[in-house]
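Notes from hallway chat w/ T.B., transcribed later so I don't forget. T.B. wanted the structure written out for a chain they're using in a teaching module, and asked if we could keep both sequence and structure tokens in one place. Agreed to drop them here.
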Amino acid sequence: MGEFADKAKAAANKVAGSAKEAVGKATDNDRLEAEGQAQKTKGDVQNATGTVKGALGDKI
């Protein structure tokens, strides 16, 4: 995957993670809240990967 694909997936994971986290908080569902936090973290990692790929010209 290239920089754009990684960053697009990162954005999707961050949005979905935020939604899960909010629903988990609103319903006192600790498991769903934790899943949301984990998904947002996954998005952060994907975004960083995309940034590195962009800096290296997608050669990794």
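Follow-up for T.B.: The chain has two helices and no strands. Might be a good example for the class.
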